[in-house]
Design goal:
The protein is built from 18 helices and two strands. The protein has 384 residues and is an all-alpha fold. Helix 2 packs antiparallel against helix 3, helix 10 packs antiparallel against helix 11 and helix 11 packs antiparallel against helix 12.
Length: 384
């Protein structure tokens, strides 16, 4: 038996040993006797018999026949041939259960699950799993329906329908996964996702992304929904912890009412990262961080644009690298490193303009050019 299990698990060819033939010979008359006795007792087909006894009799007879098949062929009949799948295959008729790639249920099995599987046919199971977007499970259910002698026309139509539904579901689930990933990144940037929460959420999203090829898309959709709820919990937890810490530190620092109000407003908005910067400034007695977009824009437009009417020229790049001036643009306040970065970025932008077809796919040039706009580019998200 151990050799048989090992061969089945490894999907290797298997020839039943002589002992299997011996056992099959001994078991064959017992199988016939069992069928005769169950029929004589009215448990095989009598509709008036006790339902529980009739079901138990059917399971016993089917188990005996399956044992005869195993002893004769060394294989368990079904679309898959690993022991775990063979044991769980009948549970596929329960559409309330979700399964992993090896057809192991993703949650503990209940009596209700078994009851639903018992009273559900393979065609209904295939339709229900497809409706739940779990197409891998639906596909195996169709294979079981085919083995049970289901209508070829029905099976063909269901396969076509599943293929069409899967294409639409895949696009939706991929978009949902990307959206949830962006939510997690935003939460981390705002300080709402401290460790170990960030690692746990990242791991779940990575596992969901890898599972996209498994075709059980409904499971991935549910996982994404659970991650969204998890993000809400982490956000509220981080807010409460930071609120308590901020209250204590503001009291100890003797911060003004206006500063304390600004910090509380940032906490209420969920921007814990900026609130932390304000809190550090209040604690150390320094000026609060400020940003004046309107003034920065006024300083840029139209003065800088007017200075670049001739485009990015070699003279402009040279003056930027040496801290000089060019048509009113003064680079002298930049540090040596900043001058070098500015010159490199201007060179990359000029090369992209003049050699677009050659350089358009090179991340290095795009990264340097985007840095001029204050954007630190790392990689490009998959549009599909």
């Amino acid at each position: 038996m151990h050799e048989w299990l090992t061969a089945i698990q490894n999907l290797a060819p298997f020839t039943p040993p002589p002992v299997f033939t011996h056992l099959s010979t001994r078991l064959s008359p017992l199988s016939t006797d069992l069928a005769t006795e169950l029929s004589a007792q009215g448990l095989a087909s009598d509709p008036s018999a006790d339902p529980m006894l009739r079901v138990a009799a059917g399971v016993a007879l089917e188990s005996m026949r399956a044992s005869m098949t195993v002893l004769g062929t060394g294989r368990i009949r079904g679309p898959e041939s690993t022991p775990g799948i063979a044991l769980n295959v009948d549970l596929l008729r329960c559409s309330a259960l979700e399964f992993d790639a090896d057809l192991n249920p993703l949650r503990p099995i209940t009596v209700d699950d078994v009851a639903q599987a018992l009273h559900t046919g393979w065609e209904a199971a295939a339709r229900a799993h497809a409706a739940a977007e779990n197409y891998a499970t639906a596909r195996i259910s169709l294979e079981m329906l085919e083995l049970q002698g289901g209508s070829t026309d029905t099976i063909g139509k269901l396969r076509e329908e599943h293929h069409r539904l899967r294409a639409a579901s895949l696009q939706e689930v991929k978009a949902l996964h990307q959206k949830v990933g962006h939510q997690a990144e935003t939460a981390a940037r705002l300080g709402q996702l401290p460790e170990p929460g960030r690692s746990l959420v990242t791991a779940r999203l990575q596992a969901a992304e890898q599972a996209l090829d498994s075709d059980n898309l409904g499971t991935i959709r549910r996982e994404c929904g659970e991650v969204v709820e998890q993000l809400k919990q982490y956000r509220e937890q981080a807010r409460k912890i930071f609120q308590a810490m901020a209250t204590q530190q503001l009291n100890n620092a003797g911060a003004s009412t206006s500063v304390a109000d600004q910090i509380r407003a940032l906490i209420a908005q969920g921007d814990l990262a900026t609130a932390e910067e304000f809190l550090i400034a209040a604690r150390e007695g320094t000026e609060l961080p400020t940003a004046e977009p309107a003034q920065e824009f006024d300083a840029f437009f139209p003065h800088v644009c007017a200075s670049l009417q001739t485009g990015i020229t070699p003279e402009l790049i040279r003056e930027a690298a040496h801290g000089g001036t060019h048509k009113g643009l003064d680079f002298s306040a930049l540090s040596s490193a900043q001058r070098s970065q500015t010159a490199d970025a201007l060179t990359a932008l000029q090369q992209l303009h003049s050699q677009w077809n050659t350089l358009r796919s090179r991340k290095h040039h795009l990264k340097l050019a985007l840095r001029l706009a204050g954007i630190e580019y790392a990689h490009e998200s998959d549009a599909g």
